[in-house]
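Extended Data, panel c. Modelled sequence:
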Amino acid sequence: MLDPQTLKALKEKVKKLPLQPGVYIMRDKGGTVIYVGKAKALKNRVSSYFRAIDKHLPKVYKMVQNVADFDYIVTDSEFEALVLECSLIKLHSPKYNILLKDDKGYSYIKITAGAFPRIVADKNHLEDGSDYIGPYMSSFVVNQTVDEVNRAFLLPTCTRRFPAEFGKGRPCLNYHLKLCMGLCRGKIGAEEYAEIIAQAKDYIKNGSGDMAALLTKKMEQCADNLEFEKAARYRDRIAAIKKINEHQKVIFSKVENQDVLGFVATDRNSVCSMLKFRGGRLVDKQDFLLGEPSQLEEMRREFIARYYSQAELIPPILTLDGETADMDLLAGLLTDRRGRKVTLHIPQRGEQARLVEMALNNCAQTLSHESNKTGREIAALDELAKTLGLETPPAYIESYDISNFGSETKVAGMVVFEDGKPLRSAYKKFTIKSVEGTDDYASMREVIGRRLARYEQEKESGRGFGRLPDLILLDGGQGHLNAILPLIRSFGLDIPVYGMVKDDRHRTRAIASDGGEISIAAHKRAFHLVTAIQDEVHRFSITYSRAKHRKTGLELTLTEIPGIGKTRAAALYRHFKTAKAIAAAELEQLLEAPGMTRPAAEAVYNHFHPEQPAQDPA
């Protein structure tokens, strides 16, 4: 922990910093460099670390807690500071700069041993009699090639063992879909299969090239020799290769040489997914685990500046999923390194936007392996954060809705979504106590005020009301937002709050923010998540409202019975739960309810059973 004396000394040192560009170097008590950053104005940037420390992102908070001292280097320009920052990060590999750990390792294409070998991807080169092609640096390329060659040559990918299982059982679905030659039928001998594998190896090493022409020639020879079944197998192989080639065009890009970068974070980790296009074709994919998330624009800047350190790595265009800090400086740095112009591009629509979407999907899938969230949930939370301008995806979301049945029944529902999924154990119901009439804004203020008051009482626990949400969504528009924002600030809290705006058909239309409405229809995953939250909070609050209304109506009915006041009516409802149960109860069962006397129980029984009274009214 950062002790008060150290903090005081650091703040005094900050006062002496110049308002000039430069690089700052944070050190721990052992003198180890733990963070390197650049600044347009050193004094302003470094001082920000030691103000409102508890409001920093978790990663920055941890770093500041370990700072014992800092150094700085003044430069003549921001550009020089950016270059120096990259150099120092490379030299020191500081703990709190991004990790830049990729998923690379050597990969091989393995052709297993035996009379009927399989073609598979493998991370290891073993002395097991198999034939290995490689090594390759990209596991993506290996997996893509193995999948492509198996489909092109209709090779089996099932778990059956050959020739031991020839003729045992029916061919699987792949055979019927013309994705497999049906080796399991036992009609293809070892010699013919070896020829197919040899062709597949040639395909791997040299590409499709003249393969279709070669197979066409062999098909015609078989037809001339009246080997029609074998000719049909060549025909199917030719069709599969042509289909593969057509499919490849789908992942071509009109921009010949570019890298497409997507960045996604959870509350504990962050990742960059890079799609490399060369000659218009997707040739590689890399995923980089970046460690705990920092501010997204800074994370993009640091990754790009560090990864593209060599000219041969830098394409003419980097297509990004969003803004990066110091964008113009960064483009200048890459241009300087490459020796030719480099453009940083953020597409809004069309082919390039779809490629960015592909990169973001890959990010989400990579992170889903690191957490208990699915790729879809991670992608939705990340897209929601970017749409709303949040620094990190909201792991814990609370949503509120007010429901009225006239002026007598006023309630609210609170639902919680954790990691993009409903957390039903945290749902809460509120009865509006202080509001006269049907004032939704005042009702929402009462509910949020009570919730935040409970936080002040229970925050030491860190559970339930003792945990603050990362985001609050109100079922309503600008009016609800205006009613709640001052209240939250009065508690000294800084919780992002937005309204969920509906259209005339009661469907989610937009998000209400402090600065106006934000359209989310174009952000498919965020839209579906917000719609799910809005539908769920409305369902929960309306269900409670109806139950409360029924209860109130029953209590009013019960109070018309002699000897039954509001207290006894409420006690009966709590005891029996439903009106049907009260009406069906026998006299002895009514007597078991708290506070019931025999005359009162007889009066209730007689009210619901006039044809069979418990006693003679006379």
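The chain has 20 helices and 20 strands. This feature is highlighted in the accompanying rendering.
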